[in-house]
Amino acid sequence: MEELSHALLAGRSPGDAPGPSLGRRFMLSLAAEDSPHFPLSGFHTWYAERCARRFKVSRIPFDALEQWYSEPGSGNLRHRTGRFFSIEGLRAEDGDRVTAGDARPIIVQPEIGTLGLLVREFGGVLHFLMQAKMEPGNINTVQLSPTVQATRSNYTRAHGGSVVRHLEYFARPGRADVLVDLLQSEHGSYFLHKRNRHMVVETTEDVPPHGDFHWLTLGQLRLLMRREHVVNMDSRTVLSCVPIDSAGFAPAGAAGFGAAVLHSLSPAARPRHTLAELTRWLTDMRAGAPGSVRRVPLRDTERAGWVRTADAIARPDGGGAFAVIGARVEADNREVTSWSQPLLEPTGTAVHAFLATRLDGVLHVLVQAYEEAGSLNGPELAPTVQCLPGERSRYLDEVVSAPASRVHYDVLQSEEGGRFHRAESRNLLVEAPEGFPVEQPPEYRWATLDQLARITRFGHHVNIQARTLLACLPSTW
Amino acid sequence: MEELSHALLAGRSPGDAPGPSLGRRFMLSLAAEDSPHFPLSGFHTWYAERCARRFKVSRIPFDALEQWYSEPGSGNLRHRTGRFFSIEGLRAEDGDRVTAGDARPIIVQPEIGTLGLLVREFGGVLHFLMQAKMEPGNINTVQLSPTVQATRSNYTRAHGGSVVRHLEYFARPGRADVLVDLLQSEHGSYFLHKRNRHMVVETTEDVPPHGDFHWLTLGQLRLLMRREHVVNMDSRTVLSCVPIDSAGFAPAGAAGFGAAVLHSLSPAARPRHTLAELTRWLTDMRAGAPGSVRRVPLRDTERAGWVRTADAIARPDGGGAFAVIGARVEADNREVTSWSQPLLEPTGTAVHAFLATRLDGVLHVLVQAYEEAGSLNGPELAPTVQCLPGERSRYLDEVVSAPASRVHYDVLQSEEGGRFHRAESRNLLVEAPEGFPVEQPPEYRWATLDQLARITRFGHHVNIQARTLLACLPSTW
């Protein structure tokens, strides 16, 4: 397993890998809580400066959205060029009956974007080139994004001369060593079949400095993920795909629950179920998910209680987890300095939590097979608790009412700021109480963090909410 | 890699696998061209008897289809219960423009069926329990199908008491040892997002004999795949997921091109590209496929030239690769003895072919990244040539005009007989001529058969046409 994961990611065949494995190199970076080359003290000054820059995001009525229009007949919100994305309707259907489910608004964005992290060694330790990026929906406007967030049209143009800085490392074959290259899903409750390409590439070249970019080790990023709204969703999901081999790694700081988390990330952590059992169980769950969905006119959501006013599409009965709104953005570091667009605004905070317990001394998290309406491949592995704003679910009470002694991570993080307005989730890692039953309902399974990471690296198997947690959990160490 | 494939399939962790590996056990079965327990001579008598049974399939007008109706407004063909499948419209859309592509009829069948092969050792050799099954669209009516072809509703009922014979081996956890359990795609030009669950399970129990079932080794099946229309599509696709480790296996019969095929199936075959390179290339191809599709009313296909008459939906201009027709079936070995249903009738024979060549002495086939309109995950790995009836494509001439000395497999096989009427494909393995360039366009790559088999076992990476070829190619040995 180890062999495959690393070989697939490193582009090497088993047996011919020279030097330390990729998983060990990333582990060394995770252990580096600061960098002599790019110390955190300097980072904080730089980041504060970036955040001080002036951006203005204001709500506007749909009629005032430049270049956007409501399609006659369907009512779908579209851009006049046909590009970017559209807001349409989605209706779930039961496999056995024609019965129409409730339609809801959904973002349709077929293009596959690239989220790319550039890494480079400084003093023998891998550093990630992070970008201070403004997104209109961000809670503190500027967060750390991957080196590039590019659409396919950016990407294709990159062969000529790109407007997206550093894109050449990802788009030009041979320019950098490709360590990770995977397609992953995004929020299926908000997006229809959305996928992004996740890339990590390594260069040995000197990269010209630029004021919007900063190098950080995984260890520094881990500390920053203890803070709210600093590391953006796109960064977290790419970081979740990075292989970390913590086997035998016992630095001075490793003790208590954090050490258990670190051990669970290692291939030496003996799991309750084999990887084969877990993937077969997911196949079973996928085969049993009978539904299909149909894109319908946005207007069809009215029958399900969605009401369109001049400046919002929302459910006055409180039944929806979000509203669609219009926004105007004025900024100074994007390709265009001002634009307007629809945004999806959640009605509250989502909750994404793992319950964890030790089985035969090894920390396991409880994953569930969970399908969202816009999921492409049916159920994926999700956190124990995944609740949209206002939703309730099994284990929610255990998670939110746990005593502080059992709560090892509890941090608000932002979701995608380019499409969502101030969307945040509360991310938790909670130790299950004594006597918590090992046997759980059939749609749940215990997995080590190493297993979750390996399944993540298959692509399209672990959802965005679980991937955020996977990226954040090393910060408990 | 080897370790992963086998561990994933056998449900074992690397290192703790007792006895010969699964790949070796299947190789032994592949080498067994006859079985002392179930000799081919007996098989042929049994099969001839099954084929002699009376079935009647007749074309009828849509109005005469019992339980099927045209939905008012959309014109979609549906079953009154909402079950089974429907015939609707599908329109491809460009990612960057709203431009509507041409709509075509498509089969919508969201339910995931199970295709299951039961295996058991006789005299130390694995045998597969094959079923003589009538499907209305089959060219010779009765073909060898997997032990079970079950819908989810069959499957769920199986826990009580099933109408599908042998289903309990697949549906009841722990009843048999699960060797393969994967989701795979089906024809994306005819089906929207269709997926099937592929299972191979092993029992050590005595299985009560039944007149519709017969045990066969892989070697016997290999000989039968040299014949036209005997081993059905569902059997071929499940067989393509079975791991075969031919490393060091050199039985007396192995010589010439067949031996090269056998060697290419082995992990010892040194590939031109690593598995990591191949999967990254496929990711790149998937990320670059910009399209999205939309289910539309069947009626919308009229604008694209599809004309509906009393007994067919077809393109009189010859532009479509198929027509939709109605059929009545009278049979005596299915759950119900008579029924009627729509079928999709291709206008001719499809061509699926691999060009093969030796690179550094190792046989490679030229795979392409190919997307069909109804594909769920974008492009999958496809044969070098994949042409619907009437279509032309790159390399088609090289394949169909090759001299016999370079044609190592050329056999007509049937596609899915439950939904298609007399759909057949010409399946070829053709050696490339001398001087055929190693460098090929970016959407093509050379792969060994072992690599193709491994990628198949990821699920959703190799399309049904390439899987049929993968299953059939050992028959050249």
Walk me through what this model shows:
The structure is a homodimer of 477-residue chains. Chain A has 12 helices and 25 strands. With 477 residues, chain A is α+β, with helices and mostly antiparallel strands. Chain A has 3 domains: 187 residues, Alpha-Beta Complex (Nucleoside Triphosphate Pyrophosphohydrolase), CATH 3.90.79.40; 104 residues, no CATH class; 152 residues, Alpha-Beta Complex (Nucleoside Triphosphate Pyrophosphohydrolase). In chain A, the strands form 5 sheets. In chain A, strands 6, 7, 8, 9, 10, 12 and 13 form a 7-stranded mixed sheet that branches. In chain A, strands 19, 20, 21, 22, 23, 24 and 25 form a 7-stranded mixed sheet that branches. The N terminus of chain A is likely disordered. At the A-B interface, α1, α4, β10, α9 and β14 of A face α1, α4, β10, α9 and β14 of B.
Give a short summary of the structure:
Chain A is α+β, with helices and mostly antiparallel strands and 477 residues long. Chain A contains twelve helices and 25 strands.
